[in-house]
Model the fold of this input.
Amino acid sequence: MSEPSMALNNPEQTSGTREQELIQRVQRGQHELFYELVRPYERRVYAAALAILRNEHDAEDAAQEAMLKALKNIRQFRAEARFSTWLIQISVNESLMRRRRERTVQMEGIDDRRDEESEYAPRDFADWREIPSEALERKEVRQRLAEALATLDRKYREVFMLRDMEHLNIQETAEALGITVASVKTRLLRARLMLRDLLAAGWEQGWFSRLPFEKGNKPW
Amino acid sequence: MVNHEVVNCEQVWREISNYVDGEVDAGLRSSMDEHFRTCKRCASVLAGTRNVVALYGDERMLEVPAGFSRRLEKRLGQRSESKWGGSRWSTLSAWLIPVAAMALIVGGLELANTSGFKHPPKSILAAPARDIPPDMLVVVSDGSKVFHVAGCPFIHDKATERTITAKQAMQDGYVPCSRCLRQYLKTGLVGPHDEDDANAEADEEQGEVVRVAGH
Done:
């Protein structure tokens, strides 16, 4: 079977081929195609900004600015990198730059370095089981999860969002935030365990009370 | 059977994130698997951590504010337009406009010099005289560098007038009178394609000139 027909039969490959074509056309000056190119990643670009700025308005502005910078520098993008990762890193850089301008935020994180180095003991909840992904169909569940995430300290939240929500790998997360791989792992562990505790506590408070679990099967 | 070291709860918690990501070596994984089988609390931590990764990793968790896409598309569109109409155009215009102006000037001069282009009328006095009989007798006088046919009313200082040949007058720097010698100036103006028109015009004035010149 010829290569083009294989691409047509494989949606993922077709999508990738289409993306490569769009990138090349935008690089050649067809800037009107740029939005079509970035549309699949606009949520991730926004979420990356939100992970750092925590304010929806600021995050949207930073995400838009990141997109404009991506357009301006589109010729610098090289095919060996993932386009989505490239976009997210621009968004992270833009957001970090904005945050540095705010002195008050720079004060954050001085006292909690010790906290990062200390051991974290997860709370003891019996019978934890899988929460079905269908739970995310409900807006209030998504809202509760977002609220739980917002309670994390900035350094944990940033790493968690880039690694577990943006799906950057450990190395990419470290590079995006300018920290070591070891720090990423430490912060990721802490973030996951804290969120696990928050969700388990939320269960006890009735966050997931109307989820369609099978009869007699508790989520944990 | 895989030999594994016994790990305690604290060690499991320290490595549980790497375990979920598949980033622990086989020995440690085996030790942790064994621990999970026997420790209910750590099994709960493992299940909860996996829940967190699965739930937050779902794309539905990445919500954007209402109207985000529309606003982004609009801003990108504005940027594309301003990029073409603004800075890029400015860069182009910085050298395009002078080049275009030069092209217009050069083109205009080139066009003006083509044989088919009709020159705008010059002053009669600026036109060279042609076909004046060199031995024709003309009158010159002091105070003027114009030569006339005898009896021309435009002769200055008649007291100093003298008669010489047209050839001599022109050699001396005199130019023909635009009134009494107009017919020769008219002839000097015409081009090859306008000769008939010039002749017709000259014919119209012939009577007056002939009368004045006495020919």
Confidence is low (pLDDT under 50) at residues 1-8, 214-220 of chain A. Residues 181-204 of chain A form the longest helix (24 residues). Chain A touches chain B through 53 residues (CB under 8 Å). Chain A has two domains: 10-102, 126-204.
